[in-house]
Amino acid sequence: MTWKFWMEKKHKSCGTSSLVPMTPKKPQQWLQVVGHAGSFHVGDYGTLLKRFCKREQQCYLRLMTDTLRPFVPAYHGVVQRDKQDYNMMDNLLTHFNTPAIMDCKMGSRTYLEEELHTARERPQPRNDMYEKMVAVDPEAPTAQERAQQAVLKTRYMQWRETLSSTTTLGFRVEGFRKANEDCHTNFKRTKSREQVMEALGGFVESRTHIVWGYLRQLKQLRQVLEASDFFRTHEVVGSSLLFVHDWTGRTGVWMIDFGKTVALPPPLTLDHRTPWVEGNREDGYLWGLDNLIGILENILPLS
Ligand SMILES: Nc1ncnc2c1ncn2[C@@H]1O[C@H](COP(=O)(O)OP(=O)(O)OP(=O)(O)O)[C@@H](O)[C@H]1O
Ligand SMILES: [Mg+2]
To answer: Whose CA is nearest to atom 15 of ligand 1?
Structure first.
């Protein structure tokens, strides 16, 4: 590091030391695990620009005044680059040293109820989705779907969720990247508890203190989620937990990706653990977090 000044950060993010280096203007390193490749730019002073999404902006504005604030990247408003709008937020990797990064998508479904409604309004049989389905599992289509060589989008969305641990555990590993390695993203069919445990184990590499760090932060997050006004009043779908650690032993967990998080019509609220039936809007987020914590605890050697 070339900069020598340290300062107390007022709204420190969870999981990092209270003393963090003052962020220099020069762009910081940033590595992406999953998601759309063209959506991001690294900004100045440790910021990251993500292609503008109104829904995500609304969430970040609300989150900046919620108790969840320490568990999300700080939001800095909208900026324009080459006529494209971006949401500007903290780059969560800034204060790590060649970090390992993992993205876990939370919840028992990754489509919104409104996406189901839209897909039903125009129920077109889709050949492209049929092809994607048979490429993964030739046995998956029904006789009728086989005859039509097509599936409905709603059917495809629901089938796709059953491949991974999304429906069985309430979260899935989207991908991870260890220091100086390529991304591992081959987890689309990682479904059983044992398979998920193996994937998580591959990320933390039997480093017990790293697992302890993550567990402590996940339990803190769970407590804050259970009391958060934002969380109670939103359907949180397709959002991820971003795990970051480095060789110094520092760990951090943050909630990211609110492009599919929507406010509920008052007075509706969610507990995020009740199983989803269409209409109740439940997303299984906390159920998934309970399972994730349980699996990480099982990774630890018995003491
Ligand atoms: N604030 C951040 N700091 C550091 N890395 C980030 C941050 N936000 C996102 N990333 C990285 O970018 C990846 C994709 O982020 P995100 O899920 O927000 O994008 P997306 O394009 O909406 O993805 P998708 O729609 O496929 O889920 C994450 O897995 C993570 O590696
Ligand atoms: Mg994402």
So the answer is: 35
The first and second tokens of residue 241, run together, are: 């937990």
pLDDT digits (tens, 9 = 90+) for 42-58: 999 999 999 999 999 99
Same domain, 136 and 213: no
Q: What is the residue range of 125's domain?
A: 114-167
Ligand nearest, relative to CA of residue 257: 1
The whole-model pTM stands at 0.90
Residue 19 domain-assigned?
no
> Considering the domain boundaries, does residue 267 fall inside one?
yes
pLDDT, position 119: 86
Spacing, Cα 148 to ligand 2 middle (Å): 33
Instruction: Compute the residue count for the chain.
Output: 303
Q: Which residue among 257, 258, 260 has the greatest number of ligand 1 atoms within 8 angstroms of its CB, and so is best to mutate?
A: 257
In a domain, 11, yes or no: no
2 is a domain residue:
no
Q: How far is CA 122 from the centre of its chain?
A: 29
- What gap in Å lies between CA 293 and CA 221, rounded to an integer? 11
